[in-house]
Design a protein that fits this description.
It holds the Pfam family Cytochrome_C554. InterPro entries: Cyt_c-552/4, Multihaem_cyt_sf. Strands 14, 15, 16, 21 and 22 form a 5-stranded antiparallel sheet that branches. This protein has 2 domains: 174 residues, no CATH class; 136 residues, Immunoglobulin-like, CATH 2.60.40. Helix 2 packs across helix 3. The protein is α+β, with helices and mostly antiparallel strands. Bound molecules: heme C (5 copies).
Length: 380
């Protein structure tokens, strides 16, 4: 009796998911905390209908005239009709709610490396998800019902909806992110964006830094105190990532040196739109002395002039901070005993000049976001 009821409930669950046409609607029922976080992530907002910055660039792209949305592969892979060429780009429920759905990541079996851009290879098994868990590493959990007492008592194990495969190494070392995030070339075989990943001696991965364990259960039916954070988004003030970018100050004879230590295993803000800056001010005898900001950016273009990404053939200048780099910036302002030096490192989503040209300067995209800040009191 109970088993029948249970089967019926499961059946209903899968029927509603088809009707709603949203893959995440089922996950939401059992993984509400993760679902809620995901709603605020850039993965839930990667389409032109939810990300004004992506839209502004797409609006200027030559492929727009033909409505040939070539960005779908990474920005909206869950719009399967669009990817397979059956539909053109339009504001459907997937574009609006889950352009990169839960399954878009959890079914990635491996990442194929290519020069233009890498490619995600998905498992073809239904309701079969990869995940990482150190204590279960290597296991494959198949949903099981065990019947006893002539079928009156049903014991279940695993998730009552899907199988889980804990043996995919790419979910442990972070490689599952690199089908979309590693690099991207334009039609002129030039890398518009490249994370220039370097692991070095770092024990951290894309997942340990960007999806740290956070309070709240990973599923309704399972008592766990924490779950992996799913709200990746740098458009808001980043809270838990500042500790990976450290600031130091050393006084010299006629000035001082600020060191920015980047513990990330990739270039900081490598995207052509971004601008990161170091802001330094000195509080001295009740007065504030603001020093000129120092900018870090990668300017791309052609024939020695900056250009839009799809026309670029060369790097014009690049002083972005590389993976695991310690960058030293020298200042020639002498410090006095009792000075308070306030040092802040942060970024603009879109360089204010470009933001203006793209008409997105009123979206908050051209506001300075402080990633990390430190105050130094000068002795001696
Ligand atoms: C009927 C409830 C239910 C539904 C629906 C459901 N899950 Fe689960 N899921 C669970 C439970 C319970 C677990 C924990 C299983 C365990 O640890 O033994 C789980 C575990 C997982 C895990 C692995 C967690 C780990 O330990 O690393 C992933 C990944 C996952 N679910 C993804 C999804 C996705 C994606 C969807 C939607 C397509 C979904 N789930 C829908 C109940 C559900
Ligand atoms: C190979 C995968 C891939 C393809 C194809 C791709 N992108 Fe992206 N794009 C990304 C990733 C990953 C990010 C996030 C990178 C980051 O934040 O460092 C991104 C971010 C962006 C951003 C910045 C968005 C923001 O809110 O700051 C813009 C603009 C953008 N892409 C435009 C495009 C356009 C236009 C196309 C199609 C012509 C396109 N991309 C195709 C992977 C891709
Ligand atoms: C299917 C492609 C895809 C996969 C897989 C993917 N991402 Fe993304 N990610 C994107 C795109 C596209 C964006 C940019 C969306 C935008 O800004 O419009 C993005 C945005 C981000 C951002 C925020 C950047 C911002 O502009 O706010 C972070 C951080 C991030 N991803 C980390 C990860 C990590 C960590 C993984 C692996 C666990 C991962 N991503 C896997 C496509 C992907
Ligand atoms: C040691 C920690 C650490 C590791 C490891 C790490 N990151 Fe980051 N990542 C950062 C920090 C710090 C930033 C900049 C702060 C922020 O998000 O505002 C950042 C920024 C990003 C952004 C936003 C860049 C932009 O301009 O939009 C993306 C996307 C991203 N990381 C993806 C990845 C991927 C993919 C990997 C794995 C190859 C990875 N990260 C590994 C710490 C890390
Ligand atoms: C950008 C790729 C990506 C997307 C999108 C994504 N996940 Fe995950 N998810 C991961 C990765 C990677 C892990 C493994 C984290 C770890 O090692 O702790 C994970 C872990 C999990 C876990 C196990 C949590 C834990 O603490 O181990 C569950 C459950 C889960 N995801 C469910 C979901 C659901 C539900 C959605 C959609 C609302 C979703 N995921 C969307 C990449 C993703």
């Amino acid at each position: 009796m109970f088993t029948h009821f249970y089967r019926l409930a499961l059946l209903l669950l899968s029927v509603t998911s088809v009707e709603a046409a949203l893959e995440n609607a089922t996950c939401k029922k059992c993984h509400p905390v993760i679902f809620q976080e995901y709603q605020n992530s850039m993965h839930a907002k990667a389409s032109i209908f939810k990300d004004p910055v992506h839209k502004a660039v797409w609006d200027k792209h030559p492929a727009k005239k033909k409505n040939n949305y070539k960005c779908a592969k990474c920005h909206t892979p869950s719009d399967h009709q669009l990817l397979s060429g059956k539909n053109k780009l339009k504001a459907n429920a997937i574009q609006l709610n889950e352009p990169i759905s839960c399954q878009a990541c959890h079914t990635i079996q491996r990442v194929e490396e290519h020069t233009k851009a890498n490619k995600n290879i998905h498992t073809s098994k239904e309701k079969y998800f990869f995940s990482a868990n150190k204590t279960k590493k290597g296991k494959k959990v198949v949903f099981k019902e065990e019947k006893s007492l002539f079928g009156l008592i049903t014991k279940t194990s695993g998730s009552p909806y899907h199988d889980i495969d804990y043996s995919n190494e790419n979910f442990y070392n972070g490689k599952i992110c690199l089908g979309c995030h590693d690099h991207k070339q334009n039609a002129k075989d030039f890398s518009v964006c490249d994370m220039q990943i370097k692991q070095g001696d770092s024990k951290e991965t894309c997942i340990s830094c960007h999806m740290p364990q956070t309070k709240g259960s990973l599923a309704n039916q399972k008592q766990s105190t924490t779950h992996a954070f799913h709200g990746v988004n740098i458009h808001r003030k980043p809270v838990n990532l500042s500790r990976y970018v450290k600031l130091f100050l050393a006084k010299t004879d006629n000035g001082f040196v600020i060191t920015i230590e980047n513990e990330a295993t990739h270039t900081l803000f490598p995207q052509p739109l971004r601008l990161s800056q170091l802001h330094v001010s000195i509080e001295r005898a009740g007065k504030m002395i603001r020093l000129a900001p120092v900018s870090f950016r990668r300017i791309i273009g052609t024939e020695n002039k900056p250009s839009v990404p799809w026309l670029a053939t060369e790097v014009i200048t690049d002083n972005t901070i590389k993976a695991l780099e310690k960058r030293k910036i020298r200042y020639s302002t002498a410090l006095h005993k009792g000075d308070e030096v306030v040092v802040a490192f942060g970024y603009y989503i879109a360089n204010p000049k470009t933001a203006k040209k793209l008409g997105i300067d009123d979206h908050g995209s051209s506001k300075f976001i402080t990633l990390t800040q430190k105050r130094f009191t000068i002795g001696q």
